[in-house]
Amino acid sequence: MATVTFDKATRIYPGSDKPAVDQLDIQTEDGEFLVLVGPSGCGKSTSLRMLAGLEDVNGGAIRIGDRDVTHLPPKDRDIAMVFQNYALYPHMTVADNMGFALKIAGVNKSEIRKKVEEAAKILDLTEYLDRKPKALSGGQRQRVAMGRAIVREPQVFLMDEPLSNLDAKLRVSTRTQIASLQRRLGITTVYVTHDQVEAMTMGDRVAVLKDGLLQQVDSPRNMYDRPANLFVAGFIGSPAMNLVEVPITDGGVRFGNSVVPVSREALSAAADKGDTTVTVGVRPEHFDVVEHGGAETRTLSKDAPAGLAVSVNVVEELGADGYVYGSAQVGGEHKDLVVRVGGRSVPEKGSELHVVPRPGEIHVFSTTTGERLSD
Ligand SMILES: Nc1ncnc2c1ncn2[C@@H]1O[C@H](COP(=O)(O)OP(=O)(O)O)[C@@H](O)[C@H]1O
Ligand SMILES: [Mg+2]
Fold this sequence. Notes:
By secondary structure, the protein is α+β, with helices and mostly antiparallel strands. The chain has 9 helices and 21 strands. It binds adenosine-5'-diphosphate and magnesium ion (MG). Adenosine-5'-diphosphate binds next to helix 1.
């Protein structure tokens, strides 16, 4: 087992002047499951390939444990990688596929057989050891690819979107299997995905990348509760956080007909930048639907209902709860909003709701820089 350190690691592809990965700074703990997540092209695979030794590092360093591996060839790094397309040898049996790296390394036959059988047991592949990959389902092939990594007993597992070839249902069950397997083996793992749900459900910690730049590294809980900037706020969570630009007023922000309290620090941080608005983030589950104008928040006009009027465009009923997709007038603009409601109080399409963000559950960001202002 070992830690993995990206120490200001930078990759600039030949012919490009912009780094694909720009001074990436992350340190994993021993045995940690770290997920790199971000939209396509943000530099996830490049980061992983730098760690694997498949891509040159143009600045900074990469360490595994105390070893500086920045310029070591892949075979000397003591890592095993699972790729998106599994890359199984079609003419070899499952057992031979799983044991191939050990055979190349000169491990004797009985030792290989023992390791392959152990891994097969863990992965529920014992009865398929003599089959060829084409006689396996997608999920089984994925497990063979995992098995090939496990038999090598590496210090670090690297996985690049290993579930993307599976159908939606299998993806969900396999992600649980991989996460629990990793916990059982305790091998430090760096896992790449573009799917934020996968990232949030699998990772001990999640690192969000955008345009080659690290945005935030945090536990899934902190990432959800305290996104560091507007990008992370919009990227993590499904349905996404509602982000609305609103005017600053005395002691808070104006949200429709209500004033929602915001910490003094956040407001003065915005004022210091000369901003008259902030961007407020509210998760769909953090709106209160106001029934009869009896909100606890301060209203601006006594004659109008509290909060923000949302006209209901689409309702998604999920049984336990439901999502209202609506639109509202905010700051003279038409804005789409998503509001979670209880499963027994789902409004009708075409009706109007009045919503107020729950005090203490709103996120405040600078409209100009995107950075988080509230604590
Ligand atoms: N071999 C390459 N040569 C030049 N540019 C590349 C190469 N591989 C990736 N890139 C560029 O580097 C950026 C990051 O790519 P990549 O790490 O594959 O992103 P991700 O895995 O997050 O989708 C992208 O802009 C991509 O076009
Ligand atoms: Mg990729």
